[in-house]
Amino acid sequence: MHDAGSSSARPAHWPAGRRQSVSLQRSTAAAAAPAASAAAAARAGDEIFAADARPVILFDGVCNLCNGGVNFMLDWDREGLFRFAALQSDAGRELLVRSGRHPTDISSIVLVEQEASFIKADAVLRIAQSLQAPLPLVAAALGLLPRLVKDPVYDVIAGNRYMIFGRSTSCRLSDARFSERFIST
Length: 185
Description:
Blueprint: H1 32-43, H2 46-50, E1 56-59, H3 64-76, E2 83-86, H4 90-98, E3 110-112, E4 117-119, H5 120-129, H6 135-143, H7 147-159, H8 161-165
Parallel strand pairs: 1-2
Antiparallel strand pairs: 1-3, 3-4
Helix pairs in contact: 5-6
Region (Disordered): 1-20
InterPro entries: DCC1-like, DCC_oxidoreductase
Protein name: Thiol-disulfide oxidoreductase DCC
């Protein structure tokens, strides 16, 4: 993970949010293998950011709600600030590990930046801050709510997304206009 003070491609107006980063510190009783695993997790996904520093939004590729959200973001992110990867893809699993999450955890949207990751409502609101108006204002207003309120609402929607919105049989395929925005590995 990069130092929080390092320069990055994220806009300066993005608010601080819940960060998830992999700690490289281990107790002295920990074996060398877990420490090596933590170091590997911290480096996971480095190649994804090597040539393109734009943040990556991880989404459930078989969820109709999530695919609709990606379509919405493509329409409202006219500057191309974000890239996308399905949570179920190799790149998605690698970035989940980088974010300190289990590689098969598809319970939340994850916004992965070079130096930090955001989940649940924090991810949604951080993304909305960078989309076209009026979404930054809506995000700022909703950001005033405590996490104690935002995350349970997110969890109820996420936990029922297949029942309410259904599933796709496969991951969303991007159209040619947006192919450079999707990480397919």
